[in-house]
TrEMBL record, chain A:
Keywords (A to Z) from UniProt: Endoplasmic reticulum, Glycoprotein, Membrane, Signal, Transmembrane, Transmembrane helix
Signal sequence region: 1-35
Cell compartments where the protein resides: Endoplasmic reticulum membrane
Family to which the UniProt record says this protein belongs: Belongs to the nicastrin family.
Domain Peptidase M28 span(s) in chain numbering: 210-366
Lineage: Eukaryota, Metazoa, Chordata, Craniata, Vertebrata
One Pfam family cited in the UniProt record for this chain: Peptidase_M28
Membrane topology of the entry: Single-pass membrane protein
Gene Ontology BP term (one): regulation of signal transduction
Keyword Transmembrane appears in the UniProt entry: yes
CDD domains referenced in this protein's UniProt entry, alphabetically: M28_nicalin_like (cd03882)
Record's GO cellular component terms: endoplasmic reticulum membrane
Function recorded in the entry: May antagonize Nodal signaling and subsequent organization of axial structures during mesodermal patterning.
The organism of origin for this protein: Cyprinus carpio carpio
Protein name (database record): Nicalin
From TrEMBL, chain B:
Compartments, as annotated in UniProt: Cell membrane; Endoplasmic reticulum membrane
Entry protein name: BOS complex subunit TMEM147
Domain of life: Eukaryota
Segments passing through the bilayer: 101-123, 143-159
Amino acid sequence: MFEEASEVLENMLKWSLPLSLVLFLVLVCPLRAEAAHEFSVYRMQQYDLQGQTYGSRNAILNTEARTVEAEVLSRRCVMMRLADFSYEKYQKALQQSAGAVVIILPQNMSTMPQDIVQQFMELEPELLATETIVPVYFALEDEELLSIYTQTQISSSSQGSSSAAEVLLHTATANGFQMVTSGAQSKAVSDWAITSLEGRLSGAGGEDLPTIVLVAHYDSFGVAPWLSYGADSNGSGVAILLELARLFSRLYSYKRTHAGYNLLFFLSGGGKFNYQGTKRWLEDNLDHTDSSLLQDNVAFVLCLDTLGNSDNLYLHVSKPPKEGSPQHVLLKELETVVTHQHPDLKFSMVHKKINLADDTLAWEHERFGIRRLPAFTLSHLESHRSPARHSIMDMRSVSSSLEGAGEATAGPHVDLTKLRRNTKVIAETLARVIYNLTEKGVSGDLEIFTEQMQVQEDQLASLVDWLTAQPRAAQLLDKDSSIVNTLEYYLNHYLKDVKRHLVRADKRDPEFVFYDQLKQTMNAYRVKPAIFDLLLAFCIAAYLGVLYLAIQNFGLLYSFLRRVTAPRVKQH
Amino acid sequence: MTLFHFGNCFSLAYFPYFITYKCSGLSEYNAFWRCVQAGATYLFVQLCKMLFLATFFPTWEGGAGVYDFVGEFMKATVDLADLLGLHLVMSRNAGKGEYKIMVAAMGWATAELIMSRCIPLWVGARGIEFDWKYIQMSFDSNISLVHYIAMAAVVWMFTRYDLPKSFRLPVTILLGLCVYKGFLME
């Protein structure tokens, strides 16, 4: 009998072990509650440039949500919609030491009126300039988020108002929201490599040919890195550069049209962070290598920056070109092409001296100018401070097709017909320069790039679409990213000697430092205020008290029931 | 919402049981161990039911909207095993009628409470998210306590041989209602 009992006991223990293990795991494991709503949020920029810190320093948050109308904002997450956003409200939130700020952007920017978009674009650099320890997030609006926002707004605006009874009722029925992010604190990314790509087309006939360099930076910038698509700035520049590579490689493949100029194409990274890619490339080519195309005969460098729109074209220079120099030739050819072939385009030269005392350089050509290489930047923007160069509103392209453009898109965007026209202008100008057409007496009306050699709008469209399909902020593109690989592949198709060039920040005195945790998942949990718990406890205690009394006096209840049913029995 | 809320739900669920145990005079009879036995019987019966269901009733494939009356009916019939279990518990306990009923019902209901309500409450009510369903669950356990007491009482009445004939029919009907309660609700 005892053996049986011990056997039973042993079996029981064996069974209970996994059970206890499970129990242990359940008790110990961290809480994973279901969220009321889970959505992606994109953090504001955080970076150091040349020792200066910018942007929001913090990434984690676990705070209750409020909207701006609420009186107490400290240690709360302030939610704002783009339509109601204003700098004063933002400042107010920061001054009251809010826990976080979440700005809700509409899914479709084109529904926003022009003035709001403009206002936001102008505020973006100011948001970044004030370094803050408050995490600032951007979220795209959907139905649930909107309902969370309206509920929070209702409860926030009614806070200071009412009597004690109303407050009690309010706490019982209201829904508060707790916003929690899942990631860790942000820290500096070590050893980030910014990639740049170069490729060349060698000219015909021997050594010592003059070189023309075409440059465009492929990264984009905005107040939130994951939302910077950079359609116009600088997706348009990259598209033009790639299309030029295609056209000129075709020309150079035939012996009769093989010109006597070397063409060097350069796609630089880190352009929005003071042109880091270009800077290091120049250092490597001019200081550390013995022979390079850049050291010898450079005719000029043409930088392409934001050319996707508008009927203006500006050639930015740091020194007006001297008569007879190749730069002057370029200027003249541009004027010729514009006046004869595209009279609707307004072209002018803008002269701005390089100011080394500024925090950042204005245009990319200034990097070349510092190293005494003659350079220009071609852009449809008149000033380098234009907000269109650093905005998240610069999104996918809109093609104003002949069937009629849809709604006018607010904010900067790429207009494909104008992009095509600008590409053609640049291509014709370059052709006139490298084939010396003006000296040979060819009239300004002759168009070279027609029929089989024409600038293909479909090609440009697909390039811009691909470029704007994902964010291209410099912090997101490491050397293995698909964009860099695809650009390299494309260049390899048309150019020779395609090389990658990496820039890593110096260890001791870094020119740029990037931080991580730029995209998070935020959970909004429905919570009840603490008073509600107390109220509930009170109610439960009352209920239990009544129950206790009822059971104690069950006898009374029973006899009462007997008495009620008894007369019927008696009658029976 | 955390631990305090869990405490609220826990007390709402468990205290009535505690109160019932204390006040119904069971403690005078040293009934604790017998209640635990009744709970063990509950576990055993549930296990048998699950095995039976899994073996003989494969998942019914077909449209989602149509309610499989026959299948669910069969499944509900298996709940008769519950009644058999209660009967078994009561027959093993010697003593007065009320004593047997109370012991069986208390043990049964407590076992059900621990098994089916404890873990959801622990995992769910402790989280940040608030949901009314945890309070509902706790309150539901109170109701099921009363339900099991009633069920045990009816089973006991059914097995009494000195029951007047006139009462037999209502008792049978009540028993049937107990078993098919879930089925009828659908």
